[in-house]
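Much of our argument rests on the idea that a fold can be written as discrete symbols. Part of our work consisted of pairing the sequence of a single chain with a tokenised description of its backbone. No coordinates are needed to read the tokens, only the vocabulary itself. The record that follows shows the chain in one-letter code together with its fold in token form.
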Amino acid sequence: MSLWLVRHAQPLVAPGTCYGQLDVPADADATHDSVQALAKVLPAAISIATSPLQRCEQLAHVLRGLRPDLTCKTDDRLQEMNFGHWEGQAWADIPRTELDGWSASFDSYAAGQTGESVTQFMARVASAFDALPRDADTLWITHAGVIRAVELIARGVRHIDRADQWPATAPACGQWCKLSL
């Protein structure tokens, strides 16, 4: 069984903005280009789940237009991490003391004071991962943070304590990876 992890196309947000669960659209041309490549390589009848955020739903909609054989459901657990009051702010404008607090207590610090901790976020993603069918390929249209969390979860890591344990890379916007489970 394989899990395809597709990251939404480039969001229409100023560079350097914290936009976790901020519901912003993606660039339509970039979405179309990504889907053109993806539609050619996906197996028939793959099960698809998408984050409800519009940048992901856009990609799902365009994909279904090119591949009407595919069906898609929305799954709230596939949303990006909730960054609380940091959402929509430039990362450079977030007080250094808050970012330092997050780094110092990476597992338990509620991002943006009202958002999720990494532990809460990973538990949410693990819930979706644990519900995957084990006899069929699945595709998730999601976000960089979810993809990073899945990479840890697939290796059996369900909790991290420090920021340096968080994966440094994820597919670029509009790109994907495939995990064999």
